[in-house]
Amino acid sequence: MKISVILPVRNPDPSLLNRALDSIYEQTYSDYEILLVNDGSDTLHTEGLRAVAEHNSAVRLFVIEPSGVSAARNLAADMAEGEILTYLDADDFLSPVCFEEAVRVFENTDVDAVWGGTLYGPEEELLRIRGSHSERSAYDTEELRKRLLIIDNDRKHISRAECIGEPCRFENGIYISRGIAGRFIRKDKLAETGIVFPQGIRYYEDAIWNLKMLDSMKVAYLDSEWYYYLENEASVSNSYNPDMVSELEDPLAVIRKLIDMNNKEEYAGYTGLLMDSLRYVSRCLLNNPKWTASSDEKRKLEKHLYREEPWREIGTDKYRIHARTRDCRKAALYRKKLLLFVWKYK
Prior knowledge:
Number of strands: 9
Order of helices and strands: EHEHEHEEHEHHEHEHHEHHHHHH
Largest sheet: 9 strands, mixed
Strand content: 15-25%
Structural class: alpha/beta
Helix content: 40-55%
Number of helices: 15
Distance between the termini: 52 Å
Shape: globular
């Protein structure tokens, strides 16, 4: 089985990109290709990416106009020659045994996709952990079977909630990411279902992708450390964005249509995401010094965040009963129109 690694980049940090690539080159399984998608990098970075492709025959370089990470991933999925697709971001890196373990799962089960474990943290800690595990051999088939959790109908509501709310966490500290981390998917099944990353959406495109995968495929979680996700203060959800409210509301509306709002697990997942989104708005817009809106504009936005969809769900009795426990106190402040004020001075 050939694995196609999809790696979109735009003006990547060369040292981080090289580390991501090294984590592929160091795999214990050698039948792979790397689809490096240059999504509108400047001339200097483009020359560096071309040099990467010229020095390793496993790398296939695609150059596109700036289109966004979703478009880059979709293009690469179409162009991939492998039977299995996986995804990597340029500032993250992989366990050296993840390819071998993923292939072993596919060879011995009928799952369409396997989602492996992720560790999140600062660079030094993740490098230390990976280094301490660098000599670990891939789990044998029997051990993988023990660690595999097939998502059946009885667990589907919980798994759908985990895509947008609290992720599944194992006792060893790894978790199933809500994004693209640790995903290995049969390409023919992805093509058959027509699942793609939604384009034109800046936030939660991976949540929508994951929800559709759970609805259309036989998915399994694997309790094995596969993906190292670098803590990044410059991530999209931590960056100033004057259009943040509308750009959050669009994917939230899509997600609301995809889930069962009458199921308590899925409702808790959605409302947890809603509260997290409101916190992003507070941190990255309302209380960001770059935001220079007039007083009237600021009051209008706060009124919208307290009284209109989707945010007013936080003030409902249903939210009070079913939302995450840690959010209930915040919801009480929200109902009194005090939450944004408290966050401003916290």
